Amino acid sequence: MVTEANALEGSARTAVGAPLRIIPRLDIKGPNLVKGVHLEGLRVLGKPHEFARYYYESGADELIYIDVVASLYGRNSLLHTVEQTAREIFIPLTVGGGLRTLDDIRTVLRAGADKVALNTAAIQSPSFVRDAARKFGSSTVVVSIEGVRQSDGSYEAYVDNGREPTGVNVLEWAVRAAELGAGELLVTSIDREGTGEGFDLSLTRQVAESVPIQVIACGGAGRIEHVHDVIVDGRADAVALASMLHYDYALTRPVDHDFSGEGNIEYLRSGRGFGRVHGATLGEIKTWLHERDIVCRHEDPIRA
Amino acid sequence: MPEAVSPRIAVVDFGMGNLHSVTQACAQAGLDAAVTTSPAAVVAADAVVLPGVGAFGDAMAALKARGLDDALRHVAASGTPLVGICLGMQLLMTESREFGRFQGLDIVTGEVAWLEPSVVAGRAQKVPQVNWNRLHRFGSAGADTWAGTVLDGLPDGVSMYFLHSLYVRPADPRVVIATTGYGTTEFCSALQCGNVFACQCHPERSGSAGLEVYRNLARRLHRARARKEDVPHAGTASQ
C-alpha cells in the first residue's frame, strides 16, 4: 500500500513537548463541592457545577469529580450533577468514587462522564480494571491511587478516600494497573492532600518513571511554584488542583451570591488553618508556567 | 439561519464509546442528534457522525454485526456529510495494525499505525497521547484547505483535545487538511475526502473551538437545505 511516508515531512516543525494538562479536581459530597485536609474534615464550598462552569470558562483542560462519600443517596445526587455539568461543559469529565461494577461505570458514562476513576474496587479486584478497559476502552479508565509514605520511604496504597490501608505497594500496583489496561493514573498523596505544602515529588516521580502511561499528580499544591516543581522534578504528565483554585474562586466570586446553605467560606475569609494555600486562577497558573517554558494550552480563540 | 426543522444527525452507536458528549455538542449547535444502531436511520439522516473509543477490531466486528458497515459506505457514496471522530476516523481507513491486521471500512484509502513514545526536551511523550494539541493547516502553499470544511474559520494552530494511541496515514496526501505533532511524529489529525470529514481529536470535548466544528456542520446543513439541493462536496484538497 502506498503510504504518506514523506507527504507530511514538508510540514515538520521543531518538535515541542505536548501541552501539559491542568485539571481542577472537585470532591463532591451529596450535592455539594467539599474540600478537606488529608481527605478529611470536609467543608462545603458551594455547588460543583457552578465551580465547574467557572473553571471551564477560565481554561481548565479537563475536570475530575470524585464522590467522596459514594452512598446511595450521594450516587443519585452525583449523577444529577454529572448530567447538569455535561450539558454546560465541553471538556473531558472524569468521574470517580464508589464505582464497583461495569454497570456503575456504564451509568456514569451515560450521565455524561467521559472517563471513570477506579480505586477501591480496582485494588480489591484488579481484574475489574482489565474488564473495564476491554468493555469501555483503556482511554476511558483512570486508575486512582492514594498513597501514604511509609517510614522506609516506600508508599502504601489506601482506599476509601484515604481511610483504609491495603498493604499494597503503590509502585507495584501502578505498574500492574497500567498492564491491566488503565489509560492514565491519578496519583494522590494523602500526606500532602489539602495541606498546601507542595506535592510529594518522590511519589509522583517514582510512579511516572515506572509506567508507560500518563500520571496525573494530585495532592498538596499550595502555590504556583509547587505546580512547576511537580512537572519538572516530579515528572508529572498532568496536574490536578483543588484548594488553590477552589479557595480563589470561593473568595472572589460575585458577592451577591447567596451563600446561605451554599457554602461555608467564613473559615476561608478568616484564613484559619489554610494559610499555606495561596489561591490562584487557572489563567495565572498557566501564564506563570508558560513564562517558564512549560507548554500549556493557554488560549481560547473563539471566546477571546 | 432558518430553524424550521433542525437537521437530523445520526450518531452511530455500535456499543462502544461515549456518545453523550457528541449529542450534547450537536444540541448546542442546534442539531437534532439521535443515537442509533439502525442502518436505515443512518442512511436516512441529513448527516452522520461516527464516534467511538476502544479497539479497532472489536469496533469493526460490532459495525458488521449490525449491518452498519454497509450503511456507512452507502452514506459515503451518497454525498451525505459523514464525520468520523477519533476511532471513527480510523475506522474509515482501509486497514489497521492495532493488535494484528484488521480491515476497515475502506472509505478513505490508507492505514492506521501506532504512535511511538518519545522524549522531547527531556519530557516523556507517553502513549496514549492524552492532551490538548494543535491542528496545523496542511495543503498546498497558500491554499485555505479548511474553507468549506467544518474547520472553516478556526485559526491555524487551534487546540483540540486528543486521546489516542494510533493515527491514520492516508495514501493520498491531498485529503490531509491538518496535521498535529506529538513527540517526533507529525500525523494527519484531520482529513476531508469529498463529503467525508474526519479528525483524530474530539471537537465535542474541545471547548468553544470544538463546538464551532459542530456549528459549521449545522450551517452547512442549513445552507444545503435552503438550496434544496445536494450538499456540495467540500474539501478543495480532494478535487
Notable traits:
heterodimer; A: 304 residues; alpha/beta; TIM Barrel; 8-stranded parallel beta barrel; disordered N terminus; B: 239 residues; 4-stranded mixed β-sheet; globular
Please give a structural write-up.
The complex is a heterodimer of chains A (304) and B (239). Helices cover 34% and strands 23% of the residues of chain A. Chain A has 304 residues and is of the alpha/beta class. Chain A has a single domain, classed as Aldolase class I (TIM Barrel, Alpha-Beta Barrel). An 8-stranded parallel β-barrel of chain A has the order 1-4-5-6-7-10-11-12, surrounded by 8 helices. In chain A, helix 1 packs parallel to helix 2. The longest helix of chain A is centred in the N-terminal third of the chain and has 17 residues. The N and C termini of chain A lie far apart (44 Å). The relative contact order of chain A is 0.14. Chain B is globular. Chain B has one domain: Class I glutamine amidotransferase (GATase) domain (Rossmann fold, 3-Layer(aba) Sandwich), CATH 3.40.50. In chain B, helix 1 links the parallel strand 1 and strand 2. Chain B starts with 7 loop residues before the first strand and ends in a 12-residue tail after the last helix. Chain B has 6 helices and 15 strands. Chain B has a 9-stranded mixed beta sheet, with helices on both faces. With 239 residues, chain B is of the alpha/beta class. Chains A and B meet through helix 3 of A and helix 1, strand 7, strand 9, strand 10 and strand 11 of B.
Secondary-structure blueprint of this entry?
The complex is a heterodimer of chains A (304) and B (239).
Chain A: E1 21-29, E2 32-37, E3 40-46, H1 48-57, E4 63-67, H2 72-88, E5 93-96, H3 102-111, E6 115-118, H4 120-124, H5 127-136, E7 141-149, E8 155-159, E9 164-169, H6 170-180, E10 184-189, H7 201-208, E11 214-218, H8 224-232, E12 238-241, H9 243-252, H10 266-270, H11 282-290
Parallel strand pairs in A: 1-4, 1-12, 4-5, 5-6, 6-7, 7-10, 10-11, 11-12
Antiparallel strand pairs in A: 1-2, 2-3, 7-8, 8-9
Helix pairs in contact in A: 1-2
Chain B: E1 8-12, H1 20-28, E2 32-36, H2 39-44, E3 47-50, H3 56-65, H4 68-78, E4 82-85, H5 87-91, E5 93-96, E6 102-103, E7 108-114, E8 118-120, E9 123-125, E10 129-137, E11 158-164, E12 166-170, E13 176-182, E14 185-193, E15 196-199, H6 207-227
Parallel strand pairs in B: 1-2, 1-3, 3-4, 4-15, 5-7
Antiparallel strand pairs in B: 5-6, 7-12, 8-9, 10-11, 10-13, 13-14, 14-15
